[in-house]
Design goal:
Elements (H helix, E strand, L loop, with lengths): L7 H13 L8 H15 L15
Length: 58
Amino acid sequence: MFDSTLNPLWQRYILAVQEEVKPALGCTEPISLALAAAVAAAELEGPVERVEAWFRQI
């Protein structure tokens, strides 16, 4: 079984989430997709040609 307390990278990830994520009300899904796309695009070597996203309303 995975023990997250032993993985320093996992602890860095948790710390980053705790520092950067703030509570929000309203329609946050579009900005979440935009942020994810921007971060992914920054890692690519060429231009982004297409972004597809799906969501399930619950």
